Structure to design on (247 residues):
């Protein structure tokens, strides 16, 4: 299938049907509950002094937290000598309170409106991206067992809001090929092996396309690296990463 055909097919049907069905089942009052909770949480944290990251708070190559003016065009001290499989990374903040709590609420407490908030703010960080290139947004897939249990893929929800803000199509270029334990349950040394052969790219030529790869959290980067490696093999010209938080 050609990329343009997959774009049209993705636009015609939601990639998160369980969530859409759940929203239809909720009453009008119920659908307003989560936005109010989000607004109250944001107000409390703003009063306590919390804010989203500024440009100088983290390395735009690897996503690590850094001091002011510590990042260079080729990366920071942590990544300048490392080969990364993506070109650029944007994040909202480090994986700590309150952002970590909001991500956990999104993943395990059904608070999906956090995904909309996260995706929209990530989209605001890439307004300087050239618009003349062929670009798609691709969420990192999760095992179907986990998606059925949770009701949605949190990365796909973030990707939906991110893409809408940037006016790019969301295309599920990646497939999950096998179940693997959650990365958060494993030591860092085991995470690369855990995601090995866990993903596949849909059979198509992606030559000349740019891809924004979207996930909720980057920890060691093993999952993102595995996905980016496959996309590069499929011909993707440039891979960028958008994550809500970096651990």
């Amino acid at each position: 299938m050609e990329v343009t055909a997959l774009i049209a097919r993705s636009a015609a049907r939601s990639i998160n049907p369980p969530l859409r069905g759940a929203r239809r089942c909720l009453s009008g009052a119920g659908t307003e509950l989560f936005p109010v909770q989000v607004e109250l949480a944001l107000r409390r944290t703003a009063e306590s002094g919390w804010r989203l990251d500024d440009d100088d708070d983290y390395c735009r190559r690897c996503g690590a937290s850094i001091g002011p003016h510590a990042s260079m065009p080729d990366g920071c001290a942590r990544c300048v000598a490392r080969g990364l499989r993506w070109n650029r990374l944007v994040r909202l903040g480090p994986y700590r309170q309150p952002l970590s709590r909001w991500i956990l609420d999104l993943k395990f407490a059904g608070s999906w409106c956090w995904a909309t908030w996260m995706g929209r703010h990530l989209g605001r960080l890439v307004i300087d991206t050239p618009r003349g290139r062929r670009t798609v947004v691709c969420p990192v897939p999760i095992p179907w067992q986990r998606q059925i249990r949770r009701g949605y893929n949190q990365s796909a929800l973030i990707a939906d809001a991110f893409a809408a803000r940037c006016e790019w199509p969301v295309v599920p270029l990646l497939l999950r090929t096998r179940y693997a334990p959650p990365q958060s349950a494993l030591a860092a040394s085991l995470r690369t092996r855990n995601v090995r052969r866990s993903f596949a790219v849909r059979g198509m030529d992606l030559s000349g396309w740019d891809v924004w790869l979207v996930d909720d959290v980057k920890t060691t980067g093993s999952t993102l690296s595995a996905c980016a490696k496959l996309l590069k093999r499929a011909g993707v010209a440039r891979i960028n990463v958008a994550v809500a938080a970096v651990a």
Summary: The chain has one domain: 26-246. The first helix runs from residue 3 to 12.
